[in-house]
Amino acid sequence: MRDFDFEIVMGLEVHAELHTKSKIFCGCTTEFGGEQNTHVCPVCLGLPGVLPVLNEKVVDYAMKAGLALQCTIASFSKFDRKNYFYPDLPKAYQISQYDLPIAEGGYIDIEVQGEKKRIGITRVHMEEDAGKLVHGGGSLAYAGYSLADYNRTGVPLIEIVSEPDIRSIEEAIAYLEQLKAILEYTEVSDCKMEQGSLRCDANVSLRPWGQKELGTKTELKNMNSFKALQKALEYEIERQAEILRDGGKIIQETRMWDENKGETIALRSKEEAHDYRYFPDPDLPPIVISEEWVERIRKTLPELPQARQVRLVESYGLPAYDAAVITGSKAMADYFDQACTAYGMTLPAGQKVDQKGQERAKQISNYMMGELSRRLNASEKGFQDCPISPENLVELLTLIEGGTISGKIAKTVFDEMFESGKKPKTIVEEKGLVQISDEGALASVVAEVVAANPQVVADFKAGKDKAVGFFVGQVMKATRGKANPGLVNRLLMEELKRQ
């Protein structure tokens, strides 16, 4: 972005709710939704005389995420109290980690416009979530009042803090996409951004090109979609640039994205660490993690997105683009692997499919990235909720490959499969869609079509290639789309040569 007046410097702080059944310090459910203030107890409400008890699964998941992000796991870490007064925080402090987090020093590799880059991760730490304020009027900017729902209070979080290595909006999006995929693959979080289980804060600053000193930053809070992140960054970068071009100074502050106005709005001056008056939580002992514990968690790590992407390219011959799209979602990648298994293409490590296998893998990819993704997006579903099972998709492709149905008929069958969930063979039989591959029957139809169109025959003999397409269309029309296209073409050429 050297055509821009300033160098953009950004870091992201991502909060991910851990996918545990109970909260971090009590036995209340973490289930999303429910009537307001019903998933609470004296512990998560911070009532006098209660004590927190750490959920061990939270530590397991935090370590698993840290290892997947190439971090070093601390053998000794502790919880701290982060003190601030806000209505969604019933204790008036948040139990978090400050100077001794559970994981540090990792990275995520991204690729933007063909260029690879490594984004450093400063730390991963555990903390409890705050409650949720429901603003009368729909948003904080227009609220006449706010109501507090504490169901979310005490839900376990990890916060992943990046280094200020991000230099463009495209890099920020790529980083968040890769981070989201890693958390989904490890199954430590469901990453449902629409439910708030993955939220992103962005630290944004600008500086003249060549300057080493960082500019004054602003923090954009709680963006819970990629679209919101992109729009908020676009606005904030231009807002800061205009101020600097006019000779002004950026104020270090916390801002929020107002979707209705399409702009960022100042919330409060940006707090420093000392403003939170951190101190070790006296009710929670330090966390001592043995090497054996770390190794036990390391053994549970799955094949991660980038490794899976490499495997799909090397083992199945998929184009790099296809592999990147498919592995961007765990549910989509699982669907692809299950479809390959249904096609009998389960491979031992390091082996490759033959040419036919590569063609089949590409067919699966084309359907998944094309029509299947389009229909799922339109119905607001993901591959985990796909009404067409991987096995049924492969059955459809097998019917096409074997000549039972044509590609055109397959579209009709596919639509019915998506709506009803029926097996393709059942649909083909019920609707009488079996492709006509009887050479004698088709030869008769071809002869009739050619005889009925002498002028088009003359056009063909005059070298007009479109004549063949006309004849193919007429044959398909006469057979209601059931004729085998390859056979039709061969019979047509034979018949036209006889004319």
From TrEMBL:
Transmembrane segments: none annotated. Keywords: ATP-binding, Ligase, Nucleotide-binding, Protein biosynthesis, Transferase. Residues 334-496 form the Asn/Gln amidotransferase domain. Its EC number is 6.3.5.-. GO terms for molecular function: asparaginyl-tRNA synthase (glutamine-hydrolyzing) activity; ATP binding; glutaminyl-tRNA synthase (glutamine-hydrolyzing) activity; transferase activity. The keyword Nucleotide-binding applies. It comes from the Bacteria. InterPro entries: Asn/Gln-tRNA_amidoTrfase_suB/E, Asn/Gln-tRNA_Trfase_suB/E_cat, Asn/Gln_amidotransferase, Asn/Gln_tRNA_amidoTrase-B-like, GatB, GatB_C_1, GatB_Yqey_C_2, Gln-tRNA_amidoTrfase_suB_CS. It catalyses: L-aspartyl-tRNA(Asn) + L-glutamine + ATP + H2O = L-asparaginyl-tRNA(Asn) + L-glutamate + ADP + phosphate + 2 H(+); L-glutamyl-tRNA(Gln) + L-glutamine + ATP + H2O = L-glutaminyl-tRNA(Gln) + L-glutamate + ADP + phosphate + H(+). GO terms for biological process: glutaminyl-tRNAGln biosynthesis via transamidation; translation. PANTHER family: GLUTAMYL-TRNA GLN AMIDOTRANSFERASE SUBUNIT B MITOCHONDRIAL AND PROKARYOTIC PET112-RELATED, GLUTAMYL-TRNA(GLN) AMIDOTRANSFERASE SUBUNIT B, MITOCHONDRIAL. Heterotrimer of A, B and C subunits. NCBIfam families: gatB, PRK05477.1-2, PRK05477.1-4. Allows the formation of correctly charged Asn-tRNA(Asn) or Gln-tRNA(Gln) through the transamidation of misacylated Asp-tRNA(Asn) or Glu-tRNA(Gln) in organisms which lack either or both of asparaginyl-tRNA or glutaminyl-tRNA synthetases. The reaction takes place in the presence of glutamine and ATP through an activated phospho-Asp-tRNA(Asn) or phospho-Glu-tRNA(Gln). Belongs to the GatB/GatE family. GatB subfamily. This is Aspartyl/glutamyl-tRNA(Asn/Gln) amidotransferase subunit B. It comes from Heliorestis convoluta. The gene is gatB.
